[in-house]
Amino acid sequence: MEIKNLSLDLETKSSVDIGKSGAYKYAESPDFAILLFGVSINHGPITVYDLACGDSVPEEIIAALSDDRVTKWAYNASFERVCLSVWLRRNYPQHFRSYSIPGDPVQNYLDPASWKCTLVWAAYNGLPLGLEKVGAVLGFEEQKLKEGKDLIKYFCCPCKPTKSNGGRTWNLPQHAPEKWELFKKYNERDVQVEMQIQERLKNYPVPDFVWDEYHLDQQINDRGIMIDQDMVREALRIDELSKTDLTVRMQKKTGLDNPNSVIQMKDYLAENGMEVESLGKKDVAAMIKTAPEDLAEVLSLRLQLAKSSVRKYQAMQNAVCADGRCHGMFQFYGANRSGRWAGRLIQLQNLPQNHMDDLEQARDLVKAGDYEMLDMLYDSVPGVLSELIRTAFIPRPGYKFVVSDFSAIEARVLSHLAGETWRAEVFHKGRDIYCESASRMFGVPVEKHGQNSHLRQKGKIAELALGYGGSVGALKAMGALDMGLTEDELQPLVDMWRSSNPHITQYWWAVDAAVKDAIQMRTQTQVGDIIFLMKNGMLFITLPSGRRLAYVKPRIGENRFGGESVTYMGIDAQKKWSRIESYGPKFVENIVQAVSRDILAHAMRTLSYSQIVGHVHDELIIECSPEVSLDAICEQMGRTPPWIPGIELRADGYECRFYQKQ
After folding, report:
1. Under a CB-based contact definition with an 8 Å cutoff, are residues 619 and 227 in contact?
2. Which residue, 96, 135, 293, 642, shows the most beta carbons closer than 10 Å to its own?
């Protein structure tokens, strides 16, 4: 029988904590093993091969794993592919084939080009990311077995040796035969549910170009990014010294046994004439500005102690693999409202920025482990460690980083879609959008370092907060009051921005009307290049790229103000599947972020010949030889995709020998 496709699910064991360290480090552990290998060939019956009890996987299936003519399906397929890469290399090296060019760090893994992931398929159609939740939402008769978590904990993780279990460190099939039989059913059921998803979603396919993006994403995860392990180790050691030092200094100043205690600190401040409700970071930072000098010093020490950035260094140490690189840091379609990537493990998307002038000097001191000099030269050692987190990512020896990013990508996309032509002109001429926005709002020329420069900040905060229907609350959330704006200035700022951008304001409500008409009339509507279609209980928004956003079971309801609103089923802020309320400007935000994501994906494909090691919303990090031209990379990244002609794009970049934000 010719094998055309396999549906797979593995049950595995490893002493590495996959939650902290990721699948790549989990699979390379010396004690990693595949326990159960569940598989269906060409959508036929499911077979579970019990490898833990001596079964062997047939040769033709093993050969198919690296055959690019055979499509391999799994839910969260990257796990199966990474595990099988290690398993083949160890046990069947004759059947292991990698990809790319010699020297590329992807060489340890199977080519992802013949792999497809049902998690991606579900996410593309607006469904949850967990297999159990997808099965529940789609109403499968055969659901993922709920006992799975307990069985995984029992067989897949090390156990604590005790007298009663004979001092063993692993539970084996013979220790609980009934549980093992249930575990085999669990493995079989997962393959079954995965195949049911394929069947249920066959009329809602993922376009081939999105699968191409997924394969490129897998390549980037396979490649990983190198960690300066010496620096990470010293940063963690220095953090411990700093914490001890700060705690001792606080104890001396306050006389408290545990100055980290919220209750003790509140009592101390109250005894010194300062009643406080909260000791959150923002509250403490605000209190320092008005507190007496001695209390301000105590609060400043507390703020330094509260710096949690060191967790990122710990995450690096947890996830770094034997090749010195962190792999698996990006979740394709992690944000299924827009299809953007989500960060995993170290979370590259939310690293602290660096603003230090002497970044390299501070980094050298940390790497040398010179705590005394750091403490002498800088006001806050935790602050220095925070700013240096990015710099722990380094290119491999003999290479450099090129970091290239889009300038104001969301503002450009929003302006283009809404037809706000004055903004397109600003971008075309390379002028500062914050200055130009402020100039239009206040009716006077605004220059960054010249006349009316004080108004630029107001233009900037308006641009960042108000593009998606935000009002006074959005300005406050963006920190308008902290920047010195008064409460009375906020509503006029909103009004001025909206009157300066009439086409964007009109676009919000045109989208709002198009969404409602599509839902109520079960028809297709269109605003500019964006198409809205209601089909089989789903609202689809087709983007210029051809990719679609999906909203499950939309309906028209009443919002808390008594007005009309759209609701749909999705993952809410609490990670629960529930009904979510939306309206025109919010849909516009989804659309703009989704189109921006597609532009980044287009740039990634344009630059796929180069070795991309990381990306963040509007930025690519490329590991390349010293001869590679920065200008050439920026030019290629800034090319306009054929599906959105006329948009003004620009990519800027810089070279560095460690990752940083310039």
Report:
1. no
2. 135
